[in-house]
Amino acid sequence: MRITIPVARVLAAMLAEPDVERYGLDLMAATELPSGTLYPVLRRLQTAGWVTADWESIDPSSVGRPARRYYRLTGQGAAAARRALAELRALAPDPRPSVGGIEPIGAPAW
Amino acid sequence: MSRRAAELLLAVARRRWPVEIRADLGREWAAELHVLAERGQRLRMLRFAASLAARRSGVDVADRAPIARRLLRTTLPLLLAPSACVGVVLVSLFAMNVVVEWLSWRVGWAFDLQLPIATVVTLCAAVGLAVFARRLARGGAPSGGWRVSFGIVAPVALTLAAAGYAVLDDSDALARVAPGLVLWLAGLALVLRVTTGTAGRGRVRLAWCVGVLGAIVVADLATILAVLSHVPTGPGTAVDGVPQGVDPAFAPLWLLACYTGSALGLPGPTGQEIFLITDAVLLEPLLYLACTPYALAWAIRAARERPASTADVVAPSPVVGPS
User: 3-class DSSP state for residue A53?
Assistant: First the structure.
């Protein structure tokens, strides 16, 4: 699996809450990726076995909308995603020297 | 109106994805579109659909082969193959000349081997080309139907037209050659269409049989047409007592005569008729022989590479998800 920036964004969003199932619009909002980028990434992750997709079990007539498709990291996918993101962070350039002893915190941009 | 436009864009987007996942994606996107429409987020709805429609391909975008490799794998072979076939014919004629020249000092029947040598060399090279094409088609874009048929035949037509203009010095000569070639190209396109349809259904051996038999029939018909447009039928005029016409009763054997230089013991065509026939259509039968194997190999392989229909796809199993 080649970890591109869109892939890393999707993995980071899903790793934020690994047990939560996410649907397309939800992931678009979390990653700020357009649909044309997100769905190919999700497809690649599915093909690699990092993500599973399942249909929502609802009665569309009673809920008033069609069933959505939910994505979730697999166990293997979560472990691989953590490793991949850690490697990316390790490759990221060193942060600028801290000022006043305050260390930069937070996740990288992805 | 905006929802209808978004649905149209999604229909375009679906076609960019592999057949086996289109139904699921269509259903998934329609669900998201419905939510956006319910919220009255028209602009977001259109952006959602337009972004998907604008994406060239949905699968393995990041891993997609670079354009150069795709060209190398699909377009380039199909564009260059006809030139290679012309080269094969020229090399076979050169080889024939060398061998016959060498033999002519040793045996009296050396000149009887001219056409068989050219045929055997062309056939061997064409089979080699077909094996190579089959391997390249495996990594090329899967296709079938008229698309692959046109993709193969169009470069052949262009190459032959270019070669014709380069070799034939006047338009009359070109006009004499054209009917046979046009018939052959149209017939080959039809044969390839039938062959890919058969191969696409998994019946590869039958596809090969249909393809080979169809190609022989088409080449035979094209040869007959070409000969009839060059040579008069019946006894015609006689030069030094030798008739300058051909007997159409043996027309189906003319192609065979072009390859072997003989009637193979049959009563016709006679030696004089074979001379007239091969004088009229010397290169075309060799070109048919050079082009057909690779065309069939590519078409069948490309048809086999096509993904299964959506009917073969297992339906997704529903699970409980967050609302």
Answer: strand
Share the mean pLDDT of chain B: 83
Rounded Cα–Cα distance for residues A21 and A39 (Å): 15
Residue among B205, B213, B193, B206 at smallest CA distance from B152: B193
Q: How far is CA B235 from CA B241, B273, B275, in A?
A: 11, 10, 14
Nearest CA in chain B to A28: B48
Q: Among B180, B249, B193, which Cα is nearest to B219's?
A: B180
Residues 6+ apart with CB under 8 A from A26: none
A5-91 is classed in which CATH architecture?
Orthogonal Bundle (1.10)
Is B27 in contact with A7 (Cβ distance < 8 A)?
A: no
pLDDT in tens, B161-214: 888 888 776 777 777 788 899 999 999 999 999 999 998 888 899 999 999 999
Cβ separation A56–B321 shorter than 8 A: yes
Nearest residue in B to A43, CA atom: B59
User: What one-letter code names the amino acid at B232?
Assistant: P
Are the beta carbons of B51 and A37 separated by less than 8 Å? yes
Instruction: Please report which confidence band the pLDDT of residue B323 belongs to, taking 50, 70 and 90 as the band edges.
Output: very low
Q: For chain B, say whether A31 makes contact (Cβ under 8 Å).
A: no
Give chain A positions within 8 Å (CB) of B47. 34-35
Predicted ipTM? 0.82
B202: helix, strand or coil: coil
Cα distance from A63 to chain B (closest Cα, Å)? 10
Is B62–A4 a contact, with Cβ atoms under 8 angstroms apart?
yes
CB-based contact A7 B62, cutoff 8 Å: yes
Closest CB from A28, A44, A57 relative to B62: A44
pLDDT per position as a tens digit, B58-100: 555 444 455 556 666 778 788 889 999 999 999 999 999 999 8
Task: Decide if B54 touches A, using CB distance below 8 A.
Answer: yes
What's the one-letter identity of residue B246? V
